[in-house]
Amino acid sequence: MVVTIDGPAGAGKSSAARELARRLGFRFLDTGSMYRAVTLAAVERGIDLADSDALVEVAEQVEISLDEDRVLLDGRDVTRAIRTLEITSATKFAADCPRVRARLVDQQRRVAEGMDVVTEGRDQATVVFPDAECKIFLTASEEVRAERRYLDLVGRGEHVTREEVLDKQRVRDNGDCTRAVGKLYKADDAIEFTTDGLTREEVVDHLMKIVEKRRAGEV
Question: What sequence ranges are listed for the domain Cytidylate kinase (predicted)?
């Protein structure tokens, strides 16, 4: 069974999807981390992120592994490094590159082949797994999403302001919804769920109910 969780930045997809996968006994696939890892590799190599050919070459050369809660880039743990504001803001170049997306989409499908998976991202239900048995669109208000991201960055030791995070989020939201490939939108057969005012546990409890109903053919 494939459970897709799509939605905008800061909606709580990663934490909710990871916990949902744990409860279900499924594998968790954090697809956004793959684009971040390509971006980090490009930045570390001094690649011009606007050079799509160079980005594709990086994507073809690196090995990205998702190991439980860790993201490995050529065997190196980059779980924290790919979550900085710098990498987050720059990931749009990899995400907007059709050939990078094609390569990573192929990897995502191969990882999920023959497995029970909870996968989260922007285009999981619409592009990567259009035939998924359970599709969820997780969202939250702009202010709530920005506050979550701000607290996450501060918790990681970054020096940012709420205004800076909100401004960058608005730019990212616009890019996610207007990009030529893999843009963010709710699949027609996805169930939308808003997480404002809910704890992570409450969100996951609700997601479990959605999955259980899908399994039983009730929704």
Answer: 3-212
